Write the structure tokens for this entry.
Amino acid sequence: MQVIKYAFQQHGDERGQLVALEEFKDIPFEIKRVYYMYDTGQGVRRGFHAHKSLEQILICIHGSCKILLDNGGEKKIVPLECPYEGLYVSNAMWREMYDFSPDAVLMVLASDYYKEEDYIRSYDDFLEYVKNQESGKAEK
Ligand code: TYD
């Protein structure tokens, strides 16, 4: 499984750093939604879902956390600890977020609005979904 991590351009000078993100330039999709998590309790693990049709970029703009990515066949753990790094998360990818530092702010840029019907919240359903997608591809 390929992990796609972006290193965004930093516009640094003696005043500090600035990162600018533009859709279709720095971000490979139209950004329809931005949300962020902060004040995450110690030991909290969240996410536990995949999406049928949603692309996201995760950026830990302050502090650090870890992301578990699972495509149904392989798992990867990706630490996020730089405000200029973005992790691309495709559709059909199970994700869990954990190990949040107390000061962590995890920002997510998403390619679509919040749609509950796009979520796959059961791991068994996710494995079934991936299997069906793969057999669909094989038939084509
Ligand atoms: P939830 O899906 O539990 O977060 P995660 O799976 O990433 O741990 O979302 C927490 C709450 O926030 C839930 O009530 C739904 C709401 N929510 C929105 O209203 N809009 C959004 O874009 C997101 C991601 C969540």
Summary: The beta strands are 5-7, 33-37, 46-51, 56-62, 65-70, 75-80, 85-89, 94-98, 105-110, 119-120. Residues 61 and 83 are 4 Å apart (CA to CA).
